[in-house]
């Protein structure tokens, strides 16, 4: 039977994001076998003869490639080196090694580099498809939960039962988003939110050990101290907020230069206190989330904050000072008290602080 060659990448008709699988192998027979095994899958299939060619395809359309499978032994850069470079281009791509020569050293190195899975040659087509599906599913799960939560699930499934603990909660919201998005296509709105807001702000939260709890329209909620509380959580939350404000200004300047109809000014609110965190929800929809007064106060402060402004609760300010005193680390964060304000759901006016540097 004559196999049809894979569609050249430049001639692929537009498809939904995350729908392309790239297979890299220097042996034409193996490439044909993989195409045959996956011909009934939902993927748009692409192939490359070596690592450099494969990396060129990934660089050309980094948001279109969802999965890269590569042979380990190839001329030029090997499969593991190729997948390490793939991650640098887009860390969301699922990375899989196919090899008949795997050694313990290779397995350890691949694990250390965060490779998502292994496939072995020779392979049965049905089992091959099932393993790819399983590996990609695990990868997607890790995109919905933070690394600490994923590690907890791996080590002890019962570790995510609801518990009370101290946490600092951050809400960030785009100002004037509803007005800006009127008359704009859904694709443009989604591209703006994903590329210019959720992705950069999520990366800042991750770098500061925060867990992105949820995305709500044009807002993001991040919890510092869930599922693993730390003494420095309030400091990490406020530091993350300042980095978010700095990043938002950079992105806003870029949007202005490009004459983009969207602008990016964000208001941020942070509160610290006791929350309930765990897997909550109905029989059909569950999520790992946090609830409590600190969540409510952070949301209220975010609504009060102007564009470019970060407001923090009195408890957050106090915990920051306490951490600085007990750790011996001088705080580089400056905040000024504001007059008490009445907020919905609270019996007494709320004292808060404006972060100024």
Describe this protein's structure.
The protein is of the alpha/beta class and 357 residues long. It contains eleven helices and 13 strands. It has helices spanning 28-37, 51-60, 79-89, 104-112, 125-144, 147-155, 177-180, 186-207, 233-257, 293-304, 314-327, and strands at residues 20-24, 44-48, 65-71, 94-99, 117-120, 163-174, 210-216, 219-224, 266-281, 286-291, 310-313, 335-337, 352-355. The strands form two sheets. Strands 6, 7, 8, 9, 10, 11, 12 and 13 form an eight-stranded mixed sheet that branches. It has a five-stranded parallel sheet with strand order 2-1-3-4-5, sandwiched between helices. Helix 3 (79-89) links the parallel strand 3 and strand 4 (94-99). The protein starts with 19 loop residues before the first strand and ends with a strand. Mean pLDDT is 86; it is low at 1-17.
């Amino acid at each position: 039977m004559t196999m049809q060659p894979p569609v050249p990448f430049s001639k692929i008709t537009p498809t939904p994001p995350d729908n392309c699988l790239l297979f890299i192998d220097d042996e034409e027979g193996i490439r044909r076998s993989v195409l045959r095994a996956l011909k009934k899958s939902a993927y748009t299939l692409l192939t490359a003869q070596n690592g450099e060619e494969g990396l060129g395809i990934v660089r050309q359309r980094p948001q279109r490639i969802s999965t890269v499978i590569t042979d380990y032994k190839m001329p030029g850069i090997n499969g593991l080196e190729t997948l390490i470079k793939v991650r640098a281009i887009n860390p969301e791509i699922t990375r899989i090694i196919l090899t008949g020569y795997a050694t313990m050293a290779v397995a350890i190195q691949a694990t250390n580099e965060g490779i998502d899975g292994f496939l072995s040659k020779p392979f049965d087509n049905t089992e091959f498809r099932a393993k790819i599906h399983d590996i990609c599913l695990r990868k997607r799960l890790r995109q919905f939960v933070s690394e600490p939560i994923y590690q907890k699930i791996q080590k002890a499934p019962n570790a995510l039962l609801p518990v009370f603990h101290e946490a600092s909660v951050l809400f960030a919201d785009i100002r004037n988003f509803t007005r800006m998005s009127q008359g704009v296509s859904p694709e443009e709105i989604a591209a703006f939110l994903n590329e210019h807001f959720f992705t950069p702000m999520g990366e800042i939260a991750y770098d500061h050990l925060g867990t992105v709890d949820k995305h709500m329209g044009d807002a993001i909620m991040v919890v510092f101290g869930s599922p693993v509380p730390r003494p420095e959580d309030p400091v990490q939350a406020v530091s993350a907020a300042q980095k978010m404000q700095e990043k938002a200004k950079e992105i806003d300047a870029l949007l202005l230069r490009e004459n983009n109809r969207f602008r990016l000014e964000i208001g941020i609110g942070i509160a610290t206190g006791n929350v309930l965190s765990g897997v909550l929800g109905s029989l059909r929809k569950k999520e790992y989330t946090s609830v409590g007064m600190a969540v409510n106060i952070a949301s209220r402060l975010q609504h009060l904050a102007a564009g470019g402004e970060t407001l923090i609760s009195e408890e957050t300010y106090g915990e920051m000072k306490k951490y600085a005193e007990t750790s011996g680390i001088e705080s580089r964060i400056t905040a000024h008290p504001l007059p008490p304000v009445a907020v919905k759901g609270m019996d007494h006016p709320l004292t808060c602080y404006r972060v100024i540097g």
